[in-house]
Amino acid sequence: MKMFKYILLVAITSCSTTMIIGQADPSFRQNQFNSLLLNPAQAGANSYDDVSVLASRSLVGFTGAPRTITASGNFRLFQNIGFATTALVDQIGPTKTTRGSVDFSYHLKLSNTWKMSIGLRGIASSVNVDLPSLSTTQQNDPHMTAGLASGTLFDAGWGALFYSKKLYFGVAQPRVGVTRYNQYTVTDYVQNRSVLSYVGADLVLNNRMNFRPSLVVRYLKSNPLYIDVNAMFTYNKTIDFGVMYQLNSNIGVMLGLELSKKMYVGYSYSYPTTTLNRISTQGHELVLRLKFNQKSASKFQGPRFFN
């Protein structure tokens, strides 16, 4: 049993520690476009409804490098009720995660300038590890002849969000469960539960330029603290550009363009800051967002707040 778990640990961690964090809850460079993955309380928090597709690929050219695709829809059903749904496929080495989730949130007015949102999430997912695809030093290893499959797993998550027109702060546990592979409980190696918090602002520099910094901190047991810093500038409410830094992971640049009032496209390039840059020097992320049912901007949120 110990040897089996050791082999599985090597399989999952063969790419990097950063990828363990990504495997538990995939991390992105353009955090403003994955707010639903961060926190179910984000459902219905925008001043419009939207549908987004995001594709991310890290360590391009390295076999087994992370690849993630997400599709999400974020809607405000009623004045105080938000609804969202997200589908995700995450591939890292021999491990493939497929996940779908549904979020509901309630938005409560705290004062004339602040609101609070509480969100709950329901999740269905499956995790498969293709062990036969790995090379081992022992031929015909009985533990490596068949893959591992979790079957369909049901899980839940929760989150809270506090926001005004210029500031926001969130805390969440995107998933509360653990993963089991057949008779094995692999809680120490795959799909550990994380707790995260984040903060951001929308600061007016002049009549054409806004500065929108954000910070995400994620705690994952037995892993280094994950810290993500974004510094985004918005010109004339249509062009976004900025830089990002992920502690002990990546640095990168971001560029976004509002093609119309209903369509936005964004791109980011990242460079590994660890020794992994010896085998790959690039990661890419592309996002497309369609917006509709625009609500009038309020004192709680402007139209370019969370994205």
Number of helices: 3
- The helix-strand sequence is HHHEEEEEEEEEEEEEEEEEE
| Overall pLDDT metric | 82
In terms of DSSP E residues, the strand content is over 45%
How would you classify the helix and strand content by structural class?
A: mainly beta
Roughly how many Å apart are the termini? 46 Å
Shape: globular
Largest sheet: 14 strands, antiparallel, barrel
Low-pLDDT sequence parts: 1-23
**Count of DSSP strands:** 18
Strand order of the largest sheet: 1-2-3-4-5-7-8-11-13-14-15-16-17-18
Oligomer: single chain
Provide an overview of this structure.
The longest helix has 12 residues, at 2-13. The chain is mostly beta strands. Strands 1-2-3-4-5-7-8-11-13-14-15-16-17-18 form a 14-stranded antiparallel barrel. It contains three helices and 18 strands.
